[in-house]
Write a structure and sequence with these properties.
30% strand, globular, 83 residues, four-stranded antiparallel β-sheet, 2 helices, Alpha-Beta Plaits, alpha+beta
């Protein structure tokens, strides 16, 4: 199993969030979908041997959503002070 987070620009209301979730649930291999509309994020748990990230993004884009994979930025830690 693999989990990915997808950002959808303009996920404006509950209807769009439910529609995006439903579209992803119809992709073979998808096990679970959860959306957090306030931050325009959808999390998808899927079986890597059946589905892949490209399929998920393609499904959303085909329906008119502007979707991209969420990749958190690594936080830089400050170097320790010398002396």
């Amino acid at each position: 199993m693999k989990a990915v987070h997808i950002l959808i620009d303009g996920l404006r209301d509950d209807y769009e969030a439910v529609l995006a979730e439903m579209l992803l649930r119809f992709v073979d291999g998808v096990k679970d979908v959860a959306s957090i509309r306030s931050i325009h994020l959808i999390s998808v748990l899927f079986d890597e041997s059946v589905a892949n990230t490209r399929q998920l993004l393609r499904t959303l884009r085909a329906a008119g959503f502007s979707a991209k994979l969420y990749r958190p930025q690594k936080q830089l830690t400050a170097a320790p002070a010398i002396g």
